[in-house]
Specification:
By secondary structure, the protein is mainly alpha-helical. 40% of the residues lie in helices and 5% in strands. The strands form three sheets. Strands 4-5-6 form a three-stranded mixed beta sheet, with no helix packed on it. It has a two-stranded antiparallel ribbon with strand order 1-2. A hairpin with a 2-residue loop joins β5 (374-378) and β6.
Length: 406
């Protein structure tokens, strides 16, 4: 990897502490992404516009470029910017009136806190995490775009995490090892669970965000194995991008040209995830379901399913009865119940079409015999005997009729 020696000032505010992150000389083997934050003092300048240490860095850089800050926005414009930035929504009339009427010290901070406390904050900023984590409601593997019916639970987990100010280290732990944490919290299959355990299982959907076509494979062993490895590789790609800020996928085939990742390191990392995505003990996406419910909820869910299935069955039966009594007007041109006493199938049917002597289909059907392939009337029903020989088969009515609508 080659990288020019240059510095990047990254200014963050933790209380009143600013930090600096610098690109390192690649010849020293130190990559900028792995350097720890180090506290630095903000530039000492006199300017009435400085309200936080970040302002000192911004104004200093603008001065170096011969630029200056824009005029301060009016309160309505500022409120609108904050609302869109934190919630993705325009401010409501009530929110505008509240802020414009608040002239006491700290009005801006109170307005910020109101938006940070809005449930829409988690929806807006959770969306950024869902993007880098590869969230989708379907498997998205070429044409194998089958549904992920429970993916929404991971989406809601992320939103709740943002809105509840979940610590980032805990946020990461739960997504990478939620199932392990659930066992430590006392989870046992078929046992009662807590809301915390359910949330831990929802978090581990992070490891299922990779494209996955293994539900729709055509059965070719080599292709199926490739599809499985694609899931494993996609999981590493998502993890590298969302947690490390690195592109890992190139190191599958060679040492990475631009990131400090060797091919052997890539497969060392893959080995960590392999037990969860073992290609030799593969579980298809639709089968990766854990039934975990609060006490009594699972039993009620099963009872509800039985009741709903019964209602669906009743509705189908009622609909079929209605169809028999309210079918569209029609003219019957051919009808055979195959229940005439001592009748022969050859009375009305033939293995050739009218005016055509060649037998229909690729394999001729024998009529009124049990030499397969054959068709015969037995006990008031049409009896079909198959031979197992491939090829189309057909019978035709002896009566020719025109069924073109008027």
């Amino acid at each position: 990897m080659s990288c020019a020696i240059r510095s990047l000032v990254l200014v963050l505010l933790f209380g009143l502490t600013a930090v600096e992150l610098s690109y390192a000389d690649s010849e020293n083997g130190e990559h900028w992404a792995f350097r720890s934050f180090a506290p630095i003092d903000p530039p000492l300048i006199e300017d009435a516009r400085i309200r936080t240490p970040i302002d000192s860095f911004v104004i200093t850089r603008l001065d170096e470029q011969g630029l200056t800050l824009s005029d301060e926005a009016d309160r309505s414009t500022l409120l609108r910017r904050v609302s869109f930035d934190l919630t993705g929504l325009s401010p409501t009339p009530e929110e505008i009136a509240t802020y414009l009427a608040d002239h006491a010290d700290g009005a801006y901070q109170r307005m910020i806190e109101r938006y940070l406390g809005s449930p829409h904050y988690g929806e807006r900023w959770g969306g950024h995490w869902l993007d880098v984590a590869g969230y989708a409601d379907s498997n998205g593997y070429f044409n194998a775009d089958t549904d992920r019916p429970l993916a929404y639970r991971y989406r809601d987990y992320v939103i709740r995490a943002l809105n509840s100010d979940k610590p980032f280290d805990r946020f990461v732990h739960e997504q990478l090892a939620g199932d392990e944490l659930a066992e430590l919290a006392g989870y046992q299959p078929e046992g009662q669970v807590t809301a915390q355990v359910i949330e831990l299982f929802e978090a581990t959907h992070y490891l299922r965000n990779s494209q996955d076509g293994t539900d729709s494979s055509d059965g070719n062993p080599d292709e199926l194995k490739t599809d499985k490895y694609k899931v494993l590789e996609g999981t590493l790609q998502i993890m590298g991008a969302s947690l490390l800020g690195l592109k890992l996928q190139c190191a599958r085939c060679h040492d990475h040209k631009y990131e400090p990742i060797g091919q052997h390191e890539y497969y060392q990392l893959q080995a960590i995830f392999y037990p969860a995505l073992n290609v030799d003990q593969w579980i298809k996406p639709k089968d990766r379901v854990v039934h975990a419910a609060l006490a009594g909820n699972l039993a009620r869910w099963k009872e509800d399913n039985v009741r709903i299935d019964a209602k669906i069955s009743e509705a189908h039966q009622a609909y079929n009865r209605w169809l028999q009594q309210n079918h569209e007007p029609s003219v019957t041109v051919c009808k055979d119940q195959f229940d005439h006493p001592q009748s022969s199938l050859t009375t009305f049917w033939s293995n050739t079409a009218p005016n055509i002597e060649t037998p229909l289909g690729e394999v001729a059907v024998h009529i009124d015999t049990e030499i397969a392939p054959a068709a015969i009337i037995a006990e008031g029903q049409l009896k079909i005997l198959t031979s197992g020989v491939p090829g189309d088969r057909a019978l035709s009515t002896k009566q020719a009729f025109d069924w073109t609508p008027d």
